[in-house]
């Protein structure tokens, strides 16, 4: 009912959190219920820590969603072989779905941040901590997108999203992303 109300109010897409078995089971029913009402709004699945498990366990959910929304730092990118991130990307490829790759302070890959901080400390003239943090957000988004392509997701099926707490910092991060890649920014 909420998705239908949003669509009727003019929403061009509806985002739902898919974080439990119940949510994964509900996604196809939501899409079907919308279709029965003549509503064709894309349903976007917002995944966090267990999306790789839910997408594998509920392939009908994977097919029902129009796009997957993931934060690589929440699904284990940078740890071992990125198995959870890879599983989500491979499901997106098999289901022919685009993926929004998001990076923010809360889901930043801590290993990447530590690496950039270490590199910065060895510079002849180290940058301030804020600059390194913003660079970590940009680098995380770009490295995650490259990993998604390595795992089979076509370049044109990737959307990047980067945000931080301050508006000016968010603008700076997105300007840097726009200068360094041609992925759509969300």
Secondary structure: elements and pairs:
Layout: H1 2-8, E1 14-17, H2 21-36, E2 43-46, H3 51-57, H4 59-64, E3 67-70, H5 83-95, E4 99-104, H6 110-121, H7 129-150, E5 158-163, H8 167-180
Parallel strand pairs: 1-2, 2-3, 3-4, 4-5
Helix pairs in contact: 3-5, 6-7, 7-8
Description of the molecule:
The protein is of the alpha/beta class and 186 residues long. The chain has eight helices and five strands, in the order H-E-H-E-H-H-E-H-E-H-H-E-H. It has a five-stranded parallel sheet.
The termini sit apart by: 26 Å
Q: What's the gyration radius in Å?
A: 18 Å
Note the overall shape: elongated
Q: What's the total number of strands?
A: 5
- Residue ranges: pLDDT <50 for 5 or more in a row? none
Order of strands, main sheet, comes to 1-2-3-4-5
Count of alpha/pi helices: 8
- Measured as a percent range, the helix fraction is 40-55%
Mean pLDDT: 93
Share of residues in strands: 5-15%
State the secondary-structure class: alpha/beta
Order of SSEs, N→C?
HEHEHHEHEHHEH
Major beta-sheet overview: 5 strands, parallel
Task: Give a short summary of the structure.
The chain contains eight helices and five strands, in the order αβαβααβαβααβα. It has helices at 2-8, 21-36, 51-57, 59-64, 83-95, 110-121, 129-150, 167-180; strands at residues 14-17, 43-46, 67-70, 99-104, 158-163. The protein starts with a helix and ends in a 6-residue tail after the last helix.
Throw out a few tags for this protein.
elongated; 13% strand; five-stranded parallel beta sheet; 8 helices; 5 strands
